[in-house]
Amino acid sequence: MAKINILCVDDQPEVLETITRDLQPLENFFQIETADSVQDAKALLQELDGKSIKVGLVISDHVMPGEETGVDLLRFVDNDIRFAKTRKILLTGQAGHTDTIRAINEAHIDNYFDKPWDAAELLKAAKKLLSKYVLDSGLDYEDYMKVLDLDELLKSLKKG
Amino acid sequence: MTKAKFIKLIIASILAIAALFVPYEALGVDGANTLNPIEIRVIAIFVMAALFWILQPFPIWSTSVLVIVLMILTVSDSSLAMFKVEGVKAVSHKDIMGTFANPIIMLFLGGFFLAAAATKYRLDLNLARVLLKPFGKNPKLVLLGLMMITAVFSMFMSNTATAAMMLAILAPVLKLFDPDDRGKAAFALAIPLGANIGGMGTPIGTPPNAIALGALNEAGFQVSFGQWMMFGVPYVIILMAIAWVLLMKIYPIKMKEMILKIEGADKFDTSPRAIIVYVVFALCVVLWVTGKNVHGINDNAIAMIPMAVFALTGIITKKDLNEMSWDVLWLVAGGFALGVGLQKTGLAAHLIGSIPFDQWSPMVLMVGCGLICLLMANFMSHTSTASLLVPILAAVGVACADTLAPIGGVTALLVAVAFASSLGMSLPISTPPNAMAHATGYTDTAGMAKTGIIMGVVGLIIAYVMMFFLAKINFFGDETIKKPETVAAKPAVEQVVSEAPKPVPQDTVVPAPANVELPAANAEVPAPAAK
């Protein structure tokens, strides 16, 4: 079973550290990668895809140095066929009204977290979204049984 | 592929290859005659399939596909040139490929159509709501209701889908239990018990039934859908009642009142398509229960009616079709392919000629097989357990048909093996429904083991008692009638048999019916084109 990646993007190293710590319970099944800018994140996505490494979830901040914002990154992920099943979380304290609307309408984000966030809530959301990713991608769910979200699993198995 | 899986693959492959070089003569397996190379290859494929299914370096359905392809490439008349053996009749590659279109596979596919349509139009959820109502609010009765409904659904839907549906209904209620009320474990365990046991009720309930039925048909013994239900349904009901009492004993329920709300099912869908689904479902069940003697359509053909109706009415769309559990069909086909390999190479006849199974105590044979099967099924997939054991036991059973007859004959042997395969449910890894119940976090491994072992053993005992009783009243008719006429139909294998030290005339029964059918099937092919 190849580990599925979670990509966390934020320009503040301490935020990345916190997210990584929050998601630690998933460590046995998912690999957490970090990037400190949109440019860096895009390069990392290309690199992972080039090695056929799956990216199941992108968690991104909104305002970061550089030309593009977090919403731009998530929109890129949403439009790129290679990441069609990848789930997206916007985690930010600085997104304005317009940015939030763009995030929903253009980047089709799955979840929105306001900074500061609740660690347990973030973990729960990540688990649910990664479960959707595993089940949607047709991966062998039995390999991930220990971390899968039960509701998502039952919903998916009900069909077959 | 992970390191662990890679190591498993290497070990299994080495052992399978080693099976090619075992000095079978020295082991006395075949006395004076040596096994021909093709037969030895079939043994190696068997060993490979067994190890791959147990160790699972690949998903189990992939192993099935591998079995079919390997057999075509190494033992068929279409094998690689280097594998062709002078003077030995190879297996027809059409027979091996044909396992995927075996009538039993069609029966199963028809079942998938029915189940998919029922789920799509929420017949399942609405039925669950209506059927649960009479059980009221008393948690003990609700438990019984849940188990019975799970069992009934599992007779027509896959065990996994049924368990997922019922656990989803149950999950919100389980959260309402007092933390110290152990009763919630009874509810969480009731679902996998109901799903696993209910599957035994009909031929389409679970793949082991299909595998046993396929082998029985191949050997010339017919068990109809209606006949299967006639013993299967009461059997399921008895086991469910026992399981219910057992669960309440182990996990006393303290909760006083319990209300199950089924979301997304307020009333039956009354759209024209939904009504077509209800009618076709009912029609199929009626046709299956009444049987061929009344209306002339055989059970497997009945299963094709919903395919046409649902396809034409758009009830099952292309997407629905693509999403069906084709892996299960491949898995079953792989089991059938092993049977074909065993029979058509003459290996079955050869081995039975060398090992005097007919001198064994029939009781020991019958019960021993069941116990081995039950043990295996606890640790590996039910379908792969049946896929491995049924072809071998079908051959053995036919060889000992005479001694087995008083305790139920070949039919009893194979039905019991199918049941034993379904009764392996003492561990979270035993079945997907168990795994799901375990994932809810409301069950404990010890409780699952306790109920699983008790139900497994009790279930096996009841199955044998029932089969013995059915044999006494001659439920399946006289099994031995078919033997003499089929022996003459297959000279190719007879030759092998006559060279064997202990010729057993009955063992030629098995390949004959398929052989007879083959030209007929071919003759029918041009017919539709001519229309």
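Residues 119-136 of chain A form the longest helix (18 residues).
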